[in-house]
Fold these 3 entries.
Entry 1:
Amino acid sequence: MNDGESGRRIVDDRFELQTRLGGGGMGTVWRARDLLLHRAVAVKEVRPADPGLAEYDPDSARMLRERVLREARALARVQHPNVVTIHHIVDGGPGTYPWIVMELVEGGSLADRLARGPMAPAEAARIGRGVLDALRAAHAAGVQHRDVKPANVLLRTDGRPVLTDFGIAAVREATALTATGSIIGTPDYMAPERVTGGDGGPAADLWSLAMMLYVAVEGHHPLQRGTTLATLAAVLHEEVPPPKQAGSLTDVLARVLVRDPAARPGAEAIDALLATAAQDTGGPGTTSYPLAPPRPPSAPLPSETVVDRPGRPRRAVIASVAAGAVLVGGVTWLALSGGDKGDSPSGSAGPTRHTTARQSPTPTKPSASTAPGGTSKPATGMLTPTAIRKALKAIEDETGRKTFGAFNVYPEYVSADAMVPGSKTRFDSYTYRPATGVDKGIIKGTLTSGSTPVSLKNYNWDAVPALLATGRKKLHVDKPTLTYVSIQPPSTLFDEPASIRVYLTNDYGETGYLQATPQGKVTKLYPADA
């Protein structure tokens, strides 16, 4: 790292550090500018909490450097839209600490989202499917993540999840960095078999995923106790209590959160269960990554804030213990990874006081007006017939595409999955904003089985205001903070016709929706208190 003109901090004569995004015991993540390719990136600066580590404990310093290099190599082996992309690594050789250059994910982390309250089961199921897809890709490449938790799931600005921080990932043929009898991970989300010193295999990552979804819908961790040792004891010896708010997710949580890894369903079966959970609760989206947008934050999180809520970032630890004797005697804990200071995880440009509206175009909380009777009514923004028609025309004109696998209208932007010409299954994602027009997203995917692309030519957009009014009146969502319209193509798998859906949700996770025909006739109501 060198200082450029006017005191600019430039790494490897190429990456200009701009804004601190987050940090913890293991270093700092920066928003940076790639001066060669003229794009924004995230740069992970690895620094131990004790700067004298290399001098008095060279073996630990060497282990840290090797761990960082392994993280980069593990990430490079997994190419998937739900896994953070690594662009470059800067390594000065032995005695130095590397820098990892990654894609910049602008929507904050799942931990940030959960700090504002629990999720509806369908929303959690959709995020769970995206993370599961990432894990399946990693497992196929021989990589186990070993630290799946809300802080390590980033959200793109359209709500799609991205798994990050493979710093303690185990690669099947290169696991020497895990000392004999040691366990690496975050205690709250660690599978029982890993607590006792075993490798655990892919099934252990699935436990962590299920526990994360439990926390997402329940708003608390069922086995978290006052100390780390007490939490580990609960993971080893206590049953996971049945969830109360999981709804359609109840079955998958009950089947995965069992101590015997051989008794857990495989990834394919879990994906089917999550797909059912999302569909049964009426979640938007029909693609292979049918994820809702991030809920608008109540306020930006300061860059130094520790989020003391369920799902908060916690310190990953290494427990030097003999297998089977975790809680019997002398346990020594050594922090190995960040997150304890917890502003934002690696690669995230989540809500900090440095984030500008242009840098993070996540929908902000709509302003409210007072409707008759004193109820709060969200501002419409893009949710008008004229705005929807303008957005649709702009996307069609820009892309030349007339059929869609998804079309979602939020107060501040429209997202669409436009079908690839000549294909009935493949799509590219696009976003329209009034100020910037049409932007192509990085997501390329295929529709889920049974979904049929739809033309929006004959949809009655003039019915949208009446549908919004019906939703505010009959869906019983108190003080909604997000209202959006989702166009649902027909599905032969679930025998569902094409429809327009209106969703209302609030900061307490209460969500209701209505379903209407493309011409605007209401056919189903799903109030929040049903």
Entry 2:
Amino acid sequence: MARPDTDFEELLDVAKLKADIEAIATIHAGKPADMRAALLPLLRTVNTDGRNKARELLEATKGGGILCAERISWLQDQLIVAIHDLVDAHVYPQAAGATAIAAVGGYGRATLAPGSDIDLLFLLPSSSTDAMRKSVEFLLYVLWDLGFKVGHATRTVEECIRLSREDMTIRTAILETRFICGKQSLAEELDHRFDREIVHNSGPDFIAAKLAERDMRHQKAGDTRYLVEPNVKEGKGGLRDIQTLFWIAKYHYGVRDAAALVKRGVLSRAELRLFEKAEDFLWAVRCHMHFLTGKAEERLSFDIQREVAAAIGYNARPGLSAVERFMKHYFLVTKDVGDLTRILCAALEEEQAKPAPGLTGVISRFRYRTRKIPGSSEFVEDRGRIALTDPDVFRRDPVSLIRFFHVADLAGLEYHPDALKQVNRGLRLIDNDLRENEEANRLFLSILTSPRTPGMTLRRMNEAGVLGRFIPEFGKIVALMQFSMYHHYTVDEHLIRAVDALSDIDKGKFGDEHPLINKLMPTIEDRTALYVAVLLHDIAKGRQEDHSIAGARVARKLCPRFGLNPKQTELVVWLIDQHLLMSMTAQTRDLNDRKTITDFAERVQSMERLKALLILTVCDIRAVGPGVWNGWKGQLLRTLYYETELLLSGGFSESSRKERAKASEEALVEALENGWTAKDRKLYGRMHYQPYLLSVPLDDQIRHAEFIRDTDKAGKALATMVRTDSFRAITEITVLAPDHPRLLSIIAGACAAAGSNIADAQIFTTNDGRALDTILVSREFTDDADELRRAGTIGRMIEDVLSGKKRLPEVIASRAKSKKRNKTFSVHPSVTISNALSNKFTVIEVECLDRVGLLAEITAVLSDLSLDIKSAHITTFGEKVIDTFYVTDIVGMKITNENRQASITARLKPVMNDQDDELRSRMPSGIIAPEPAPSEGSTPDLGPGNAPRLKV
């Protein structure tokens, strides 16, 4: 049984606990049920006090995570021993001394997290009695009554041995068996037989199975240790990986602790310290997580990262918050675990373990001869992996540290773990001389621009520590996370994934998703500069200054070192400085406003820059995380590209705007042929203003005309129409209703109540005083039938709210109640009002923390202020939203008065801070009375002050 430390031992007087239990047994002698009931309060108090003390000592930094886990394990041992002794002496004395209780799994290593299951093995003799089994049941019921989650098995030694042969999970559990109490000879028999009958000569089988199990677990977790909400127990580089290392070492080398691996020559003393520090840190994180949440929480989510960081003692530093510093340390520790895995695998190779038939992976390749690699005298091929000809390769020529990865890329080889161990131990050889070495930089550039798998090679260089040493600026962002819901990966992993995306584009893999860039990539004049820009675009994250500006400065220093000429350097510097320009313009600006296009074109200036920036932007968005890229963003970027291309090539003419609108109107009238009377063609073909005619495709104009005519024939005052678009990953909900200052606000509120995310809004007014608004919501289902049903539900919600059948404040409140309010993140709210971004409209940009109903409330405020919303552009970056509104006053003029601008800001701020309860209570129930429906051709009475919006 494990022994406690002095600080913890003082808490629990074991002798007194036994005396108290004995007193309870005496009082309730012969009454097991009463005895059990009386026992529970005492044991609960002991357990609660003990765990509170363990938490107190952990928070007071009296020992780290492992010591905390050992304290809880020791406490658990005492409770089990106390219950067992009671059962043997007073409940089932006829079974006394006949069974053994052993801890298995993590508990078997004498470590236990606060919320973890208790894994127990009850060992019975070969001829067991009913009393023995009942004694086990009694003990289990007491543990369950105390609230413990107990994983248990009741077996004989023979059953354990038989099942170990058949099931690798059971074999692993028994490998960790630790005797707690009872008949010790049974536990010893199991231990001896397990070593002799199971472990002997089966090392390769076990190792291969554990490594395959680890790989499958990693795949389920995203196959990266750099997820910003990692699983501390099961994730890559987490505690389970450390446990796997120890299982393998214990099984193959027969060691009882990691320190014995130093004597065996498997680990150096420095590597042992790394092992111990990594394990202690991960245990500390896990224990804090369990204490904070009160359960076995293994996912280090945003909700608890701040609290864990504070509990461990991290403080903010310039450019990095406390939680970001903590998470960077976390990811560096998980990287250390990966290094230790490679070192152990290399040692196993040297041991020449016997390969298991039919298995692939590390073990199956142990006994194969090496082969020469053409053109290389330093490296050889060992069963599909690059290996060193001798351990001194890197010391003789440090450039070989870069050449190693270059040759592996050229030859398409995996990496021998022993070679990676030598790489790791040779990192100190990467100094300024190597960084400035022309050959080393040429090799690196060749790796980066490789037509094969540059992302994979860069990732291996990063894992080995080479990339961060060779490019110190990159080393600063290794394992750096950004505390936001938008970014799924650490900065270094994001950059490497961006290179992955560029490589896939280069190979033409995204033809269906990105038809434009698939066509543009072969025309790129400078492929090398583009790859460098993609790798470096976020290299200055984590600094106090703007990362685009700082990144451009870093690039200006690095590009000549890499061997880029002045023209290439200037392109890379410009791309990094402006790498957010195209994304933000496309998502937050009105692309139908000519000023948007002219301003963007003035900053881009050339087609070469435009093409490179488009490709960089796509790579950047795709590398943020799963689900961040969608077809709607692609459509916006394509529209911006095509409009800018026209302007840069001289094809954009303001003078033709009126003529183009007239031609569009005539085309619509001509297209309304089958089933249309001459009167209807004239009425419905000429009811739109210039913005509509210039921005809406003819097919959609025809569809809208039919929709409006059908609505009028049905005598409806309002109607909705839905359409899915799988390519753009959006669903269109078109609303026809009497125009009203609050119309967009009510529609947005209805969409929020239906649980839909608005991506954009196209707002138009017909010349008979009605609004034709198309709301674009993010697609949720891949199947069109499912998405149409969802869209129909949203459409009905909009109609019910507009008609007054449902009250907007109530439906939004109901939705907000069902959706957990995000209190983890804070976004400083800001309002920007500009008259320079459009020739005709004032642009109001709102940035704040997202929540249910926000858009509805913001647009309600703008309506209260008598502002006419021409278009709205809704962009969400995780927890942050940036909403942009193009507005005029009630007579179609810009908002130029400074006092009025200040008033707009003052009215918006309470809504952005979620404080405007008065506004919420005043939100209208609808704009159309449910009955009676207006007759065909009539204009509904909107009431005093509700005149139609004036469109210019």
Entry 3:
Amino acid sequence: MCGIVGYVGKRKDVVPVIIEGLRRLEYRGYDSAGIAIGGLSDGLELRRAPGKLRRLEEVIRERPLEGTYGIGHTRWATHGRPTEENAHPHRDCTGRIVVVHNGIVENYLALKHELTAKGHKFVTETDTEIIAHLIEQELHEAKDAGNALALDEAVRRAIRRLAGAFAIGVISADEPDTIVAARNGPPAIVGLGDGENFMASDVPGILHHTRDLYFLEDGDMAVLKPEGVRLMDFAGKPVERKVQRIQWDPIQAEKGGYKHFMLKEIFEQGRSIRETTLSRISLDSAKVFLSEMQITEEEFRSATKINIAACGTSWHAAIAGKFMIERLARVPVEVDYASEYRYRDPIADPHALGLLISQSGETADTLAAQREMMAKGSKTVAICNVVGAALAREAQGTIYTHAGPEIGVASTKAFTAQLVAVFLFALHLAQVRGSVTEDESRHLLEELIALPGKVRDVLRSCDAECERLARVYSSVTDFLFLGRGIHYPMALEGALKLKEISYIHAEGYPAGEMKHGPNALIDEKLPVVVVATKDPKDAGSCLRYEKTLSNIQEVTARSGKVIAVAVHGDEDIAQVADEVIYVPAAPELLLPVLDVLPLQLLAYHIAVRRGCDVDQPRNLAKSVTVE
């Protein structure tokens, strides 16, 4: 959740490196910011401020600072209010040790009582301050015993006493030009340079300076100095990690002329879908190729069940995936919220496969679900957008969504790339199990190749229409979204997008459940968005469509206002809906990618008209890396 950036070296001015890096991590969500710098005097200088980064920059302009090493932080409050006092970085009693931290120290109260009894004075409400004092205590006890303790050893001893999840960066005035980083849960990366090195909580924070990264794994520590980086585990033993070279163009993380990152990312979906598809399919053989798999075809053939776990928007992709996998591969699928999975003693075994979906690949609950599946003998496949992320490292197979960096908190292009990745997984599984013919496969792959063009057409044709609808409906207090079958999770996603960024209460519901409660909500003030697309060549799709038309008539009979999403050429829908947004025809299992586009645009334009912070909605973070 929190943003962390660190720099050590003499090739750049450290303050701009850290501030610009934090700005590139603003999408993670935050409510205060701070920086600590050392290297040009005997001590560390701190500047902190509540609110946005511009407040911190104002403080720095009033009281400039410079140095050769430092760490910065944007905080998303967990312990303590978002005040200057509680903003990171945090000092120890001497002021010569400074810590930034992402995560939660679960045993901080017990440690605080212990340290207070030893004379430590605490000045904040945070759990992070405990870490600085623990490191100070380790150095103090070693000195009393006549031993000189290096900073990394003191950090190692301190963090072994922490319960919970953490990614930290530590600097000390007594060990200049050194940053110690450690990870146990939330992500931490180390960037490699020439005579300089970097640390961050996510790739965009340092991508303008280096493309060569170490992704620290749980239990890893790193000691950064200008001349190099040492990696070790929490016991102090050296570890080796592969250097990952990031191919993202840094310009991809800029707005590129769009008013908001979210709008830019909505319009990038044609490209991200194409990139996720390319190199994985062959029309000649009508095959799907998933190369990064340590799961054999025999294991795919013999799987008796697929367990899917995900959170938030990724959970909606998982529900759509259930329809895809069961329809194509004819194997039972169970979908769980990752945050609930391990708390119900789930059934997983060597005959089941686990599928984990996460944009960041670092979502704490999804990682915990993966480990639960693996502990019970299941092999797992990860779908994520970040090469080298924890979810991918621990999985036996990975399908990367090549969506590029997604900065907006509300996921758009990563979601549709996930839908495509799940579809590829489902079709590959079906081919291995022999449940689809070569002709059926080729038809679906031809349609998949045509999908990016259709996406671009929808975005061009629907943007102005959604902006017009936003003018009409931006002042309402509630929305209802309805869908049937594989379109139901798109209704859930549409409702989530609207509530995330516009703060309007919105609810997604299966259209067939209207009589079991939601009908009570309908009146002339309630807009109802109905996903009513169909594949005319699919009998089941047509049957669901007819049922959905009946649901629309239930709404209009009660004076509700209906906004329908339908396929081009559908004249029946215009007779019963107040507004219709049209998308191109596609096979039933690919229609969700087109369904969701106008829902994204509608949410965006409503949020803009309401004056909301579209890219950084209140109380939300991009990557939920702690429970």
